Fold:
Amino acid sequence: MSCRCDNFPARFVIFSQRGDRMAMNIKKVVIGGIVAGVVLNAVDFISNYALAARMNAETDAFKPGLSAQMSTTSSMVSYIIMDFAMGVALIWTYAAIRPRFGPGPRTAVFTALLFWLLALIFYAGYRQMGMMSPGLWWTLAFIGLVNFLLASWAGAKVYSEETPGV
Structure:
């Protein structure tokens, strides 16, 4: 299916011809995503270890036994896999916006801020339900910002576009 963009004003057309598009380097997206996933997992491990007592107390106050359910081996494995999937999505987004904003840390920061804002929206429900206090929510929001910034920067350092053969 092709799209004819001749009828639209130039300011609305990002890519009007196939030759204008930059190919995404999928291999580097995956490698950069794995690097970002390692960073996400490392920061999560450190922050969860440091805040475990506080998080468990607030979770159990919301629903007794919930923290034990969230700490099972299968839950931990799913959190680790989700962090790696998030890392790949983070670097895929970086690669997708890189042609518009340029390569480098500035674009990595934009990507991190996007993911952080989406995470804030998602986790706001936990605060609204009473599953965590506003203080814990803001603590995790700050840690999440640092986490996304570090992961996005690390993955972006690995990512590069494919250079066409001359």
